[in-house]
Amino acid sequence: MVKVAVYPPNSLVIADLIERKGHTALALQKEMRKKIKDPEIDSPPMNITEEDPIKGLKYAAIEVPSGVRGRMSIIGPIIDEAEAAILVDNAPYGFGCVGCQRTNELSIFCLRQRHIPTLELEYPTSRDETMDMVNKINTFLDNLAEPKEESEEKEQEKVETKTVPAVADTTPDVEPNELTEDESVVEAKEDKEVPAEERMKTEEERAVSKEDLVASLKSKGGY
Amino acid sequence: MEEAEEHLTMSPKLGSEDLDPEVVNRMIILGPRANVSESELANELHLLGLPLTIKETCYGAMVSGKEKDVMKAIKEIRKLDPYNIFTKDRGFAPGDPRRCRGHRLGPREGFHQLEREFELLDYVGEALKNPRPVEITKPKPIDVDEFKDIVKKSIKEEKITK
After folding, report:
1. ipTM above 0.85, yes or no
2. Phi, psi of A214 (to 5 degrees)
């Protein structure tokens, strides 16, 4: 069971699909309920306590409008708790419960920065788009449900096959078996990036091509 | 005017259930093609015999109670029409004067989004009934060489047009 954050945070369709697959949807209503059940707050969500702006400071600087910080004090814990996220972009004006575009942008930015499995979708406007969206969400959620042990085993196999030659070339004194898991994962990541670097040209070639580009732009008068 | 101010700063008299952190509220929403009506849904919920507060609404029903009972009720009620019954959490208790339409001067908060999402529920139910395999492709950053080619091409094109 994975805790999945949704955006807009009160979405009926996405939260329902998540629960159908046996995961937990981190909906904003649950956070609001905590406020409502608090006997010290008379009329939520209009009342805030002195703790809320302090909580909001974790996500937004002091110069940021207090409205954004206040909202982030409620949405922030959802972002911290999330193990996966489903974000819907380009929703119609007024869609969602936040009522503040800057908070929406900041929340989506924070969720992306978490580097958790994220599915980004466009708001559907037709039958085909809606059906495609539902199928994508279901596929994404099925992939989340894969048992961790299996996926870890697969990763380890990949690491073993990929890292051994690279490690032997770069660090001859250290035996591959002595590497800890974290180190081997890092090595694997570096190893994956190698093909991209190979595609890059040497520095000289890059400098020459840059000069060409600058010259062509200058000739156009746009540099 | 006084009435409007009054309802915005309302301090309702809450019962013990309203302040119990273990009590959760759920909205049960019927899709446009649902085989059951709102009253049938409410009847079925009552017939389950669980200790729940049940309210029949225009979109379906609202249930309130201990989380274990609410989830059990939802699991049972989905069996009536698995592809056209949707559920959603709700922060406020059924009939809470701070949210209930009966005490407000206009539609309650959340109504407009529910209205928007209701338009999609027909297709969502259809997609759930007939699932299709899809591939999720992640957008990748453009390759440097490819980007250079594009820049060169566009420069050439502009030169030609000038």
Report:
1. no
2. -65, -45
